From TrEMBL:
Protein name in the entry: UDP-glucose/GDP-mannose dehydrogenase family protein
Organism of provenance: Vreelandella aquamarina
Superkingdom to which the source organism belongs: Bacteria
């Protein structure tokens, strides 16, 4: 099949590379010339395990190409995937200007039947807007080509995107057209062999499914974080509670890990956008709004715990910080809890010495050179002259720590663990105070 993909960002590249890898002919379009020329030379601008290999192999095989020539790209594919960004507007709603610009481009240059596939996460009703934008352009040209618009949301986790694309739990397609169903069966056929994962539904249902899935996952996280807070004040250990509830298959163990809050490009943005849609239609979404409020509060927890540990005296203190990325396996710092912490620490006059296996350059790009930030090459380098250690991201390499060495190096024996990586007894045995989420020294002693 011939496939065009608009947007050489995270979703566009993963989709393009995975579809080319099973034999489709794919052309990826972007307006950014630097991005396109780098990709043509095999340089991949984002870090995602396995993606570079896939791009290089399929470039070499001639099945994957990159271009800035939108008119040619429109003519190329039967399928026209829209995988451009939908940033949050100031009010939290998704900004559709890039999506609609692509729709216009398609309308301006199409010369035969096309299927337009909304891959970007877009609010319910967007497919209809895309349809109108294309139809308007055709009308301006005075031509009448047939086309369909369908919704095909992605469910890719950063760090596991290739795996999710090839072995995800479902492929959702919102359409009423049999012609589209047939084309999508052909497009995804190679990834749909073991069992039929294709789910066809109405366009609006597909659009809402994406938001509902992310909002429910975010709800699970905010829920457990709220219970962790209760555990701290009720004298319970959240990790025991997590095991206790997760064993019920109706609840399950996934996405109930307490922590310093969710971040990334999807959950915060999608939760906000769905709450916004709900307000717009006069049906305020109370749970969804609360999920965001709880998460904002949770991102401040590590700073609160440090303040408590230092009796509010953080000015002049140096804090070692392990983990800048919003989760392991990525260099992405969008809405990362580490940022809320660093900014609060700087506001309180403290210094940060940070280490992350992948995200140092991203951190430098975001914050530039500043006197109160040192980006270390090794995690041990962050500890020199540090008063306490805080962990924001659960990178595997952080799971092994020599606590007795650590208690000698730190100026004050304090660990604040935003990901509950260790057993409180092990840390305390080395003479360290261990503040974690809903456990350890965070738990208040409660009078009977
Ligand atoms: C998410 C969805 O999982 C994916 O399906 C969707 O398409 C995009 O959004 P991603 O943002 O890459 O993917 O990350 P994910 O692994 O889901 O984690 C999101 C955030 O939740 C991270 O900050 C993570 O640390 C946090 N999290 C996750 C928890 O705090 N506790 C958990 O139990 C699980």
């Amino acid at each position: 099949m011939k496939i065009t993909i608009f947007g050489c960002g995270y979703v566009g590249l993963v989709t393009g590379a995975c579809l080319a890898d099973v034999g489709h002919e794919v052309i990826c379009v972007d307006v950014n010339e630097n991005t396109v020329s780098a990709l043509k030379a095999g340089q991949v601008p984002i870090y995602e395990p396995g993606l570079e290999r896939l791009i290089l192999d399929n470039l070499a095989a001639g099945r994957l190409n990159f271009t800035t020539d939108a008119p040619e790209a429109v003519k190329f594919g039967l399928l026209q995937f829209i995988a451009v960004g939908t940033p949050s507007d100031e009010d939290g709603s998704a900004d559709l200007k890039y999506v609609l610009k692509v729709a216009e481009t398609i309308g301006q240059h199409m010369n035969e039947y096309k299927i337009i596939v909304d891959k970007s996460t877009v609010p319910v009703g967007t497919a209809e807007k895309v349809e109108r934008a294309v139809a308007d352009e055709l009308e301006k040209r005075g031509v009448a080509f047939d086309f369909d618009v369908c919704s095909n949301p992605e469910f890719l986790k950063e760090g596991a995107a290739i795996e999710d694309f090839s072995r995800g739990s479902r492929i959702i397609v919102g359409t009423e057209s049999e012609r589209v169903r047939e084309a999508m069966r052909q497009c995804y056929g190679p990834y749909n062999r073991q069992r039929d994962k294709l789910m066809f539904m109405g366009v609006r249902s597909a659009e809402l499914t994406k938001y509902a899935a992310n909002a429910l996952l975010a709800t699970k996280i905010s829920f457990i974080n709220e219970v962790a807070n209760l555990a701290e004040h009720l004298g319970a250990e959240i990790e025991e509670v997590r095991h206790g509830i997760g064993s019920d298959p109706r609840i399950g163990y996934s996405f109930i890990y307490p922590g310093c809050g969710y971040g990334g490009s999807c959950f915060p943005k999608d939760v906000r956008a769905l709450a916004n849609t709900a307000d717009e239609i006069g049906q305020p979404a109370h749970i969804i709004k609360a999920v965001e409020r709880v998460n904002d509060r949770q991102k401040n927890k590590l700073f609160e715990k440090l303040s408590e540990a230092f009796d509010g005296q953080l000015a002049g203190k140096t804090i070692a910080l392990w983990g800048l990325a919003f989760k392991p396996g990525t260099d992405d710092m969008r809405e990362a809890p580490s940022r809320a912490l660093m900014e609060a620490l700087w506001g309180a006059g403290a210094q940060v010495q940070a280490f992350d296996p992948e995200a140092s350059n991203e951190c430098r790009r975001l914050y530039g050179e500043r006197d109160d930030l040192v980006l270390a090459e090794q995690r041990e380098d962050t500890l020199e002259g540090a008063h306490a250690l805080v962990i924001c991201t659960e990178w595997k390499a952080f799971r092994t720590v020599d606590f007795s060495a650590l208690s000698k190096t730190l100026l004050e024996p304090i660990i604040v663990d935003g990901r509950n990586l260790f057993h409180p007894d092990t840390v305390k045995a080395a003479g360290l105070a261990y503040y974690a989420i809903g456990r350890g020294d965070s738990v208040r002693s409660v009078q009977a």
